[in-house]
Amino acid sequence: MRSELSQPLPAEEPAGTVTVVHFAGSNLFLNGETFQRIHDRLVAIALAPGHTHLLLDFGNVEYISSAAIGTLVVLRRKLLAAGRHLTLRNMRPAVHEVFTVSKLDELLDVRPEDPEGGAARERQDFPIAYVLIVDDDVAVRHVLHVGLRSRGCYVWSAASGREAVELYRRHLDKIDLVLLDVTMPGMDGPRTLAALQDLSPTVCCCFMSGNLTDSQAQALLQAGAARVLRKPFAFAEVFDIVKRLSSRHCRQVVERWISLPSQGGDPC
Fold it and tell me: Is residue 61 part of a domain?
């Protein structure tokens, strides 16, 4: 017997272009006036046809003002409304601390510099998929979390339906797929999916269960699940589903450089 039931899979398509913007110069001070002057340029880049993800490289930014952070929040809101995603990567410890102390790291996708650099940062910045794992079984969560991360996914884990809903509320603009256990104490899988659908009607969910009849599995699909996996399953099967439902691995990366006006030169 097949270990899964599913809705027809969509054909794999490119997930769009990721644009990485680097700021020209070194030891830059990013203040409100400076960032406001390049704001429209960044919006134009991010909203270009086919572009889905704007990634700002903060590796040479030494200081960022509260006004500049406010402009970033506005930029993120505009891109989110247009179905785009904003990431701030490669932050020096002092700059990253500004976001964590103000708790803006819970709103913005901010990532500290990676001492390993190169390939490690590429895996962090361009994950194959953003996945939320929801299962009350700690062993299942651990195996899936470690396995998916080792293969280039960005992963959140939740031990309950309520925790999953809160994580999804905070990161719904990033999460591609929810791997959701059917039977959990408190808020079970179907109730959790309903709550996630209230937040985003297009949420992509794959149910996991070790004790389902075919009619029960069909009912889960009718409730909006893209897949129903029967436990125990092979990890390779899960990873294949993650890739197929996300398709982020098909995207292209374009790099751009911008000169900050107050640092010399005009935006290019």
Answer: yes
CA distances to 91, 97, 100, 110 from 113, rounded to whole Å, are 5, 12, 14, 10
pLDDT in tens, 155-172: 999 999 999 999 999 888
Query: 142 and 62: one domain?
Result: no
Domain-embedded: residue 2: no
**Is the whole model's pTM more than 0.90, yes or no?**
no
Domain that holds residue 91: 17-125+251-263
Alpha-carbon span 217 to 209, nearest angstrom: 9
Residues composing the chain: 268
Instruction: List residues bridging with 173 in a β-sheet.
Output: none
DSSP-assigned states of every residue in 53-115: EEEEE-TTEEEE-HHHHHHHHHHHHHHHHTT-EEEEEEE-HHHHHHHHHTTGGGTSEEEEPPT
